[in-house]
Amino acid sequence: MELRGQFKSYAEILDLFQIISMGRKSGEVNLKNDAGDGVILTFKEGKIIDFFSSVPVLIELKDRVLRNELPLEEALNFLLHFVSWWEEGSFRFIEKPIEVEGIGSADPLNLMMNFTKEEDETPEKIKSILKENKVFSLSESAKLPITIDEDSWKFLVSVCERVPIWDILFRKCVSYSKGIQVLSKLLEASLIEEVEKTVEVASRERVEVQKRESFVPQERIDKARLVLVETMGPMGEFLIEDTLEEMGLNELPLSMVDKFINQLLEKVPDSCLIDGEKCRDRLKENLEEILKEGPNEP
User: Fold this and answer.
1) Which tens digits make up the pLDDT trace of 196-249?
2) Same domain, 9 and 84
3) pLDDT per residue over 27-83, tens digit each?
4) Fewer Cβ within 10 Å of end Cβ, the chain: N or C?
5) Could you say which of 211, 226, 243 is where a domain stops?
6) Which of 129, 200, 126, 188 is nearest to 163 (CA)?
C-alpha cells in the first residue's frame, strides 16, 4: 500500500498516523515542506520505532534519545510540533516489512493525544514566537522578585547567550510542555524580551542552514551508481533515484547516508548477486566508502 498527498495542517498528518496505527501497519512516512525540511518516520506493526531528518535541531533530538536524555515519545512530540509550524507540505507512506529494531517504540495514539492537548493549550503568542524562531535577552523591566527553578535557570543561561528559541527548546528542555511553561513564565514576569537577531546569531543560523544543506556531492552519487551498474547490470542505473524518491528526497543529506544505503540494498534482488548475502555486504561496504567521505571542500 502507498498513500501520498499534500497537507495544509497537522490534522491531516494525525489522520495518517491513525490509519497506520489502527491497521498495525509497517513502513515509512515521509514528510516534507517547500523549504526542503524533511522527516522520515519508521513504523513497525503500528508503532513508531525511529525517525530521520537532515534538520539540525531534529538531528539533535535523535542524538538526545540515543544518549538516553529523552524518551523517543517525547522527541516525537517535539518533532510533531516542529511540523505543525509548516505552512503546508507533502506526505508519503510506503507500506513494507521493517526488520530493524529502531531506537524505541512509541504508540502513535498516545503521541497524538499528548500533542493535540499541548497544541490546544499553547497560546497563539507562544506559537508565533516558536514559528518565527525568535531571539530574547534579559529585560530591565522584570517584575521582581521571581523564583527561578533549575529548568528556568538553564533556559535563562541560553537566553543570555542569544540562542534562538528552537535551539533552547529542542536541545535543552526536558519536554515540550516544560519548555513552554518556562517560556510563558519568563514572559509573564517580563524577565526576557524579544530582540533583533545580532550578526552573531545570524551567523549561527547560516551555519545551521549550511548543515541542513550538507549533501553528498553529485560526483559521488555518480560513482555509487557505477558500482551498482557493475554489480547488478542495467537495472542498477535507476536504483539511486528510485530510493531517493521513496525517501522523499531530491538530494542525499550526509546525515541520512546509512538510512539510504540500507533502504537501497532492500531493492537489490538476490538474482543480481553472486554469493548472496556476502555480495550484499561487500556492496554495502563499497557504497559506505563512496558516500560517507563527507562534503567536498569549496
Assistant:
1) 866 455 555 545 544 454 788 888 999 999 998 888 888 888 899 888 888 877
2) yes
3) 999 999 888 788 999 999 999 999 998 888 999 999 999 999 999 999 999 999 999
4) C
5) 211
6) 200
Distances (CA, A) of 214 to 17, 70, 218, 291: 29, 26, 12, 12
Which helix (H) or strand (E) covers residue 186, if one does? helix 176-188
Q: What's the structural domain count of the chain?
A: 3
> Is 249 part of a structural domain of the chain?
yes
- Domain check: are 105 and 175 in the same one? no
68 and 21 in a common domain: yes
- Please give the grid coordinates belonging to residue 204: 549561527
Q: Flag whether 29 is in a domain.
A: yes
CB 251 within 8 Å of CB 268: no
pTM over 0.85: no
Phi first, then psi: give them for residue 49, nearest 5 degrees: -115, -10
What does the block give as the cell for 98? 521493517
Q: Which helix (H) or strand (E) holds 138?
A: strand 135-138
Classify residue 296: in a domain, yes or no: no
| Full domain range(s) for residue 164 | 123-211
Q: Are residues 86 and 55 in contact, defined by beta-carbon separation less than 8 angstroms?
A: no
Instruction: Compute the distance between CA of residue 192 and CA of residue 139 in angstroms, rounded to an integer.
Output: 5
- Residue 14 C-beta-side C-alpha neighbours within 13 Å: 16
CA distance 196 to 132: 12
The amino acid at residue 29 is V
Q: Please, are residues 17 and 51 in contact by the beta-carbon 8 Å criterion?
A: no
Same domain? 165 vs 96? no
